[in-house]
Amino acid sequence: MTFQEHTPTIQLGQDGPEIQPLGIGTRTWGYGEDAADSNRRDAFTASLNAGVTLFDTAEIYAMGKSEKLLGSFMNGKENEVFVMTKYAPFPWRFGRQNLIKALRRSLQRLSIDQVDLYMIHWPYTLTSIETLMAGLADAVEAGLTKTVGVSNFSPAQMQRAYDYLAKRDIPLASNQVAFSLLKRDSETNGLLDLCHQMDVKLVAYAPLASGLLTGKFTIDQPPRGILGLRRGKRSIARMQPLLIQLREIGEAHEGKTPGQVALNWVIAKGAIPIPGAKDAKQAEENVGALGWSLTEVEVSSLDATAQTE
Ligand SMILES: NC(=O)c1ccc[n+]([C@@H]2O[C@H](COP(=O)([O-])OP(=O)(O)OC[C@H]3O[C@@H](n4cnc5c(N)ncnc54)[C@H](OP(=O)(O)O)[C@@H]3O)[C@@H](O)[C@H]2O)c1
After folding, report:
1. Residues linked to residue 253 through DSSP beta bridges, in sequence order
2. Which atom of ligand 1 is nearest to the CA of 26?
3. Of 90, 138, 141, 151, which one has the fewest beta carbons inside 10 Å?
């Protein structure tokens, strides 16, 4: 049985296409040499071949190059891909007209006439939430995006966005926030429950906690760079019980990897993980989070172990 038959598909946005409850994040696309771009193309192709059609990008990723790459990879396959991208509400971008201008530039880079979902990247700005939502609503009415969403919005901010859009008869499709076994504020601050109540999809970014939940880092080989500064040896040592459990549960599901179990946990919570993938190997592994389900007991026991991390 393929995962297409096994995992229930979801609809992201009113009248949106049925898609798999997992996407691919492209935040790192556009950095590095040409060889890196070719790896990103392989990640794109591997995802699409496996039936994963949802791609997340933003105008600020690699200063637009992530959108450009996605646009060039889609060439001829635009109808198969669900594209979501984001508006950066910099403090110097006043008013709603800036949003439309930025979206037109994103569409140019993506080489398409309309995106599937357009989001406000973050709420910290001098422009009011209502003005930002007015810009999103204008974008829908101008046919530049099919649906709209927000990102990094708290429950109260999301409610304001939802209420404004409802007055224009436009549903809020999603709120994209950090959510993983190692970052669970959305469960404790009521955001996940509110999303379920309002039928707003919670799109989970950093669902692998930047690779930590794949189990590839060890006490002897901790992460380097910025991630290493945040998560050094001690932190890796503290997360060992969780990694051991991810491995054990994965083995009970025909050898699923810790990362696949961590992504399946996000799906079990009713959220849509968008793990970043840099090459075909990572994309194929991440797609292996589909087509099977953790039991309720496994989800509760991961909840309990992650709590103590
Ligand atoms: N809305 C927002 O504010 C916001 C913020 C951040 C991210 N995002 C979105 O969410 C997406 C995902 O977040 P993220 O990239 O920060 O974190 P993530 O998905 O938790 O981690 C992705 C990183 O983990 C590693 N990885 C991925 N799959 C792997 C595998 N199968 N095996 C081993 N390593 C693997 C890769 O890094 P290495 O190969 O370098 O280890 C990859 O770049 C982004 O691409 C972006 O689209 C949105």
Report:
1. none
2. 45
3. 141
- Angle (CA) 251-208-250 rounded to 5° is 5
How far is 120 from 118, CA to CA, in rounded Å? Answer: 7
Closest to 210 measured CA to CA, from 25, 37, 23, 63: 25
Q: Determine the distance separating the centroid of ligand 1 and the alpha carbon of 41, expressed in angstroms.
A: 16
Mean per-residue pLDDT over the chain, rounded: 94
- Which residue, chain included where needed, has tokens 């949003």? 99
Tell how far the Cα of 163 is from the centroid of ligand 1, in angstroms. 31
pLDDT tens readout for residues 92-149: 998 899 999 999 999 999 999 999 999 999 999 989 999 999 999 999 999 999 999 9
Q: Which domains does the chain have, with CATH numbers?
A: 18-215+257-294 (3.20.20.100)
Measured between its terminal Cα atoms, the distance across the chain in Å is 36
Distance 57 CA to ligand 1 centre (A): 12
Rg of the chain over Cα atoms, rounded to whole angstroms, equals 19
Q: Residues with beta carbon inside 6 Å of ligand 1?
A: 25-28, 56, 121, 151-152, 176, 205-211, 214, 216, 259, 274-278, 282, 285-286
Report the atom number in ligand 1 closest to the C-alpha of 58. 47
Q: Does residue 205 have an active-site annotation?
A: no
User: How far apart (Å, rounded) are the C-alpha atoms in residues 97 and 87?
Assistant: 12
Q: Using alpha carbons, select from 142, 143, 141, 195 the residue that is nearest to residue 172.
A: 195
Pairing of strands 18-19, 10-11: antiparallel
DSSP helix, strand, coil percent of the chain (3-state; round to 5):
50, 15, 35
The best mutation among 119, 205, 239, 264 to test binding of ligand 1, ranked by most ligand atoms within 8 Å of the C-beta, falls on: 205
pLDDT of residue 208: 98
Ligand 1 centroid – CA 276 distance (Å):
3
